[in-house]
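I need you to check the entry underneath: sequence plus fold tokens. Let me know what the token row says about the fold.

>
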Amino acid sequence: MNRLLKHLSLHRIGGTELRVVSDIEAGLGPFIEVEEEVVEKYAASPRWQQKSVTLFVLKDLEPLVRQLSEGAALPPGGLAILGQRPIVNVYDLENPGSCHLFINRRAMEKEGYWDDREAVKGLLAHEHAHPLSECETTRSARRLQADLSTDGVRPLFSSQAQGREWQTKVDRLLAVVVDKLCLYAPREVFANDVTIESNFTTPLLYLDKKNVLNAAKGVRSKGALRQRLQEEVERASLTPAGADLLLVIGDMHGHLDLAMETASFYRQGKVTEVKELEEMLFAEVMPYLEPPVAEVYPKLRDQYVQLRKDMSPEELVQSEGALLGILAAVLKEKGLRLEYSLRVAP
């Protein structure tokens, strides 16, 4: 890291050593306190193996992005999206004794997390749950690859040249949607499971409710996007069908991952919590989504609820195929035929 460091400290929580590194001079006390509280609770569990945790609190994640390559095991969207994530946990599957958490101040402030202690606790608890939730299914998920084809997208746009340009954009966005809602989903669902099992239900629910409210702000301001797309239609660079398709894909990308959150509360039998969360979701977000997207939310959620921890790659192909089929059906309603296949990498 080439930046000037403003803070370096060492803390011990039971048998775990916590190192805090930051290029921010002030305001770190609450983060350290919350991290100590989270680690202390996890360390009481027999599944906890980490002897060393390094917490980086940074202005942004550019230092991390520079050190990684596209070949690394990255979250959906790759390096382009990694730098926008509020918190990232980097750990080695072959070395469960340590991990590195990176807090992105810029992203935290954008999402309203920075000064919200309970939200920070939920985020840290979830990120620490990732290495603890590794199982046969998550290992299988890492071996799956999806091949997608959307050759039918061009007629939804105006000229042949513009059709090629729009198809590239649609293909890239759909690749992220499939990666997030299908291939990466088991890791998120199981991490949420461990978070709840480890008695972080309250901060996770608080965080999810905050994210539902953030989503509500986003969907209610969708009129600006709709207006921009209408302008493209009026300029004849986009057909009305193409504009509808882009709105659907945008909603799929931005909001269907909330099904992973509610699924874990169902899986853990948290009836009161999931009822409260879904009441908010159906009141604040679903009415503003494109109807086909809102209709598939419970189908995705139910698929996530059925995930098992002992699924082989071949079994997971069947489960992921069902998820892809749900998404493909939505796109087909809007005139886009998504062809897909799943394969198991060596």
About this structure: Residues 7-132 form a domain with the Collagenase (Catalytic Domain) fold (CATH 3.40.390). The chain has 15 helices and seven strands. The chain has a mean pLDDT of 91.
